[in-house]
Design brief:
The chain is an alpha/beta fold and 104 residues long. It has a five-stranded mixed beta sheet with strand order 1-3-2-4-5. It is globular, with a radius of gyration of 12 Å.
Length: 104
């Protein structure tokens, strides 16, 4: 999974050809650490259909603020530069894939 920043967010996420799943995360967030292996697996399995990236909210407050992210982890799916789905909290891979089905 690729890490994006305030500086690279527009290029990596908003201009991407594929739908992009962004995890807004933080080092101090236990559910974020729980979700990391799930997202890594999804990134591998859905390569070519879905791009998965992470953004650390502590070091990238501009993007966090722009999208009103208040809870970690927040998962947001972007398509054609627009957020099309938002989910808060860790979840199992099966549930995540069900929730992503309508945006992929």
């Amino acid at each position: 999974m690729k890490t994006v920043t305030d500086a690279t967010f527009a290029e990596e996420v908003l201009k991407a050809d594929l739908p992009v799943l962004v995890e807004f995360t933080a080092d101090w967030c236990p559910p974020c650490r729980q979700l990391a292996p799930v997202l890594a697996e999804v990134a591998r399995e859905e390569e070519g259909r879905l791009k998965v990236v992470v953004l650390d909210v502590d070091t990238n407050p501009v993007t966090q603020s722009a999208y009103g992210v208040l809870s970690m982890p927040t998962l947001m799916v972007f398509r054609a530069g627009e957020p099309v789905k938002s989910m808060v909290g860790a979840r199992a891979k099966r549930r995540l894939m069900q929730e992503l089905a309508d945006v992929m």
